[in-house]
Fold this protein.
Amino acid sequence: MAETQEETIELVDELAQLLEERRWNQARETVADLPEQDIAELLLELEKAQRIFLFKLLPRGQANEVFAYLSPEHQDTLLQDMTDDETREVLAGLTPDDRTALFQELPAPATQRLMELLPLGERRRAQQLLGYPEESVGRLMTPEYISVRPDWTIEQSLTHIRAQKERGETVNVIHVTDNQGRLQDVLSIRRFILAEPDDTVDSLMDHHYISISAFEDREKAVELVQHYDLSALPVMDSEGVLLGIVTLDDVMDVAEAEATEDFHKLGSVGGTGTISLREAKPIRLYQRRVGWLVMLVFVNIFSGMAIATFEETIEAVMALLFFLPLIIASGGNAGTQSATLMVRAMATGDVRSSDWLRLWGKELGVALALGITMGIAVWALGVWRGGLDVGYVVAIAMLCIVLMGSMFGMLLPIILEKLKMDPATASAPLVTTVADVVGILIYFSIATAFLSLPEVG
């Protein structure tokens, strides 16, 4: 791919001109030596008609690889402008897991139409993978792997591996299965290469391997691959039969998708899944964002009600209003920091909800230190603006509100997980809004009590 943005733009313009002038051979030669991932990115920069022309110019093998790197949305757009024979060729070139990823993103009628273009065997395999729960490992795995038998010699095994090289999605690891397909071990290809030809596979085995159920959540696969540094994770049924494998590239895609989804939830961008900001239509972005914003409008009404409750306090010491935005925002910011750290730690498996008491004590100490530091910082401002008493009020209020925001932000994700809800729902706007309402009550209650002002209400 071009090294700079300017070079990328020049390459896109060159391709567009070649396609516009119908100089097909030159357009094909321009991208012939580029990696498939980069060609996929170039396709997205072209106009729709040019995108389709360029894709159809690619050699079959290269086109299949490029297609696999496109999002399901763009894959569907390309398929809609192809003949049945062209579509059949593209689908045949996809690995089963990539094909499943495409099918599960399409509307049911479109999926059914594409299913009918597959050979009977491939159609049954696709239906089997789509039969697993939506977020399960079964939807993520590919049934294309290489396996050998324990009683085979190394020479027999290597001959079999060479013969099956087109079938397996990865040959970094070789799976050992018995005659019933039950997994016995997982061995690196390096051990086969270094072993003596007459040795048996059984002599290499130690029966120590990591596997996962096809019905397990796909996030568990990400956790296992990251923790054990695996290049492929075997997927088994309840009887130990090897059904397929989850490869590293699929795990990376899941990790990116899950992280994006958590960021969207933390920002109160509703819905599930991921969206492309560049490609998404304005109406879709509106739908994803409007729900939480409307809800938070009504929640913020309580902030106004809380302020109205302390009208007499505010009338007595108008200087208090000067510090209201500063102190309230600090509580929300502290809560957002705590919630973000906790949600991410829970998502990566770094902490569990059972750790709440130890984490609560740690966060309490950190929050106290932060509150005292920020309280000292605003004390001088309070003295300057409203005198010594106001300085004490804003300092104490800052301490209490930062402490409250931090503890609330830390505990909310844990509470949500206990309630079987996604901890990422503890979004920044939600934490900030709650901290605002409670912070107003704390601030003016301290002011009323400390300054001996008239009682509220």
